[in-house]
Amino acid sequence: MIGLHLEIIKEDVIIMGGGMAGLRAAISAVESNPTVSVGLVSKLYPLRSHSVSAEGGTSAVLNPKDSFDLHSFDTIKGSDYLADQDAVEEFVKIVPEQIYTTDRWGCPWSRNADGTISQRDFGGLSFPRATFAADKTGFHVMQTLFSRCQMYDRIHFYNEFFVTSAIIENNQFNCLTAINLHTGEFVAFQGKSLIFAAGGAGRLYEFSTYASSVTGDGDAIVYRAGLSLKDMEFMQFHPTGLIPSGILITEAARAEGGYLRNSENKRFMEKYAPTKLEEAPRDIVSRAMMWEILAGRGYKDEHGDTPHIHLDLTHIADKLEERLPMITDIAKKFNKIDPAEEPIPVRPATHYTMGGIDVNIFTETSVPGVFGAGENAAISIHGANRLGSNSTNECLAFGNVVGVKAAKWASSHEIPELERNKVMIEEKRIWENILKNKGGENVASIREDLRTGMDLNVGVLRTESELEKQARNIRDLKLRYENITVGDKSGVFNLQLQETLELGFMLDLAEMITVGALMRKESRGAHYRNDYPERDDKNFLKHTIIKYTREGPEFHYRDVVITKWQPAARVY
Amino acid sequence: MPSENYVFDIERNDGKGSIRHDRFQVPKKKISTVLEGLTYISENLDGTLAFRHSCRMEICGSCSMSINGKPRMACSTIADSLNSEVIRVSPLPHYEVIKDLVVDIDPFFEKYKSVKPYIIRKDEEEHNKELLQTPEQFKLYEQYSMCIKCGLCLAACPISGSDENYIGPAALAAALRYNLDSRDQGSNVRLDITGGENGTALCHYAGECSEVCPKDVDPSKAIQILRRSGIAHELKQFFRREKDARR
After folding, report:
1. Global pTM exceeds 0.90
2. How many residue pairs from chains A and B have C-beta atoms closer than 8 A?
């Protein structure tokens, strides 16, 4: 050891991530098994997770006039046919129970006058099935799950432990290595089973709705541990990120009747989605906005130099207080705009990572006893584009599945002997290679270059030359990263060290996103190539599967699972 | 002529008792919020500064700290609105400091847990059945359900500063939130806790908690309502005991 005491913490089930999928999994694990213990490891406190920022709604088939087939079809069409249809069919069936369960646990779902649960329309839905808690759906579901966790002394929270790696040995989970941010100590978490529920990776872009903490740790750690990732080139851009901060303005604003207007003060969605207009799926609306901006019809005004579009809610001012209170408050607080009086300046911003850990319909990875759920995983129900209102329900539904699975696995398996050598190699990487490096490069500067490059070259509209340029940029940034100097040498709450390790994760992910986008010579869902503007089912009705090698990511492709719905033209 | 910079005066704390003040010049045109100011400092001037942040939209509760003498969220405090070129930032009072602006928030969450802040029902087994709750029934507790667990109220509360056992404003508001929920059947259990020696009786109703709450939860009002229902609860318990004694 490098002069450091190694603490070893053992639990039956280890969960990385305290957001919606992680909390749901923790509850399911302890409720499905009366003796199992859960260690929930998060670099934040659970309620600080990005899940609390989810706003508009969560789709569930609750109304007899709706159907599982309709929800499946909407999801599959929304995915531009890249979703695995068996996974989608399973998903829509297990969601409704989660709405009633969280209702019983206190989630204040918005109601109709008769007291039944209310639902509203959302982008790309053929039936208004978005269940919601005003425009604070994620916040209220998270409070509900966290409160439920308080009932169980068998859920142990390891808050503000930054996970640096996962050690998988003999095709079995051995440990997570982590830094206790409060003390600076190095810790190994061991368990009989492991759940990855650490969220997405959108902060490797500059203009983003994501919390600063969403740096793709889960994806990168899984990748480095030798497990496969899937479909990482599909990054969702939400049409309405607030200028200049990127704060999310919910899609519900358009579902409730809001208009998008260009700098000629004209609505323009009729050109791009003649039936659904502003309520088309996110990939289509984001592209439409970028094309308007590129044609010179973006606003450039007092809200900033970045060209943008106006989201006009003035004609639905009477709905703001009851249906859209949070975004009304946000516009007032952060931009000094009253949406009842003035339009809101918006622009597409990274919002959801469709790709993630390659797991099957049972949340299993290729390593027995290691599971993935939530945004961290790609089951895949979202394919090339997730529909709005299909993420929080995924966290609940598959969070439940994965919790039960991991608890069951833990009840019949043992914790292996700790791989001390591997732990020491990781310790050396951090305390010798990174902390003692004197190369003079600075984390903030490399990170900024990465993010602005991703915005510019791997955005809503992509072309070969820009993607190649960014692939070169990332190789250069990786070389600069080798020379990074962490100025803070202290143990306690060393943010600079944490950010340096996060940046390492982000560089790995940026590389596979960019190269994956280069190799996918077609346009599908959120991945649009100016040079290949059509979908190519003959060659690319396939998932991208990504594996770690010393030389960089290795790519291969796997056929999409089709059950009932043959790929068809995607018109809204 | 007004200066082009804000001066951030930050209380630095190594967590072992050594405190100093560092001053940083932050260009006004580079930042809008105090959190952006701290990020600017961390990225450009001093990477050793420790502070918490995540959502930057006042919903995750991370970046609570004392700004110009008042407990606030750094992300939603617009620097310009402070009407001061000097922005004084220090860790939240009434919490132990871990490092710089990072405080130990665990006692806050322990108090929260102590009031049993979850729905208690007798029909736990039934998962897949809809419960009814009208919008009017929701309105009764809506305000108290908006708490983001930032901990500002506890930093403002004079009682919490002097009595570490006091359950405190956020946890008491959470207790009322569940007591008022039509789906809950556990208010008697909670009233025993909130009416106990560390509960509502300690509050002086100065209202500081409600003043600093970024989400208008109004814990002070919650505590008043809780105390009233606590008195009714105690009377009921008293008469029940009397009745049992006479049997």
Report:
1. yes
2. 155
